[in-house]
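Hey L., structure's done. Input below.
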Amino acid sequence: MAILNIAPTKSALLTLKHQLGVAEEGYDLLEQKRQILVFEMMSRLRRAQEVEQRIVPMLSSSYKALQEATLDVGAIAIEQAMLAIHPCGQVDLTTTYLMGLKLPKVTSKLKPPSLPFGVRGTSANTDIAMSLFVQVLPLLSEWAELQNVILRLAAEFRKTQRRCNALIKIFIPNYHQTIDYIAASLEEREREAFVIVRMIRDRLAESVEPRN
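Output:
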């Protein structure tokens, strides 16, 4: 803690008290924001874990089907068949706001084509792999959104935490110490002024007393 380099005057004392009130109010708001960020991060972390637990077995089944299809017709035939596939949906990226913080929102609308591949050149496992990969895409979109949001919330949390620490450990204690110092200085001046006025009054009283 340190005393601010400010002249010990009544106007400075009033200004510092006002600034202290603003700083304490700002700290309360930042503390509330910090708690909200923690809650939002934890809720999204739980959701991300749930989504990941669903994604892992689905991807495992998808890749297994793709391996079976590759064994059936070969990798070149699979690649050629994929070139004939048109996009079977769309992924929209929008923005939401949380306490002024921009957060991404991913919305996917995907569905497997009715007849993705022809009869010749592929196998049933090719259709199965295609269907499984399409089914997992919405979860992958949600997982990507959650990961990005968590990173942004964590960065905002660290910034908010630094501001809270600066206020509660540096600025607010400095203001309190400076206010106490100025208040003590003003009281000392008032006492000195009172003593001086009293001494002057006593001398004036002595000077006007009648002499015998």
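The CA atoms of residues 3 and 178 lie 5 Å apart. Helices lie at 10-73, 75-83, 124-208.

-- N.
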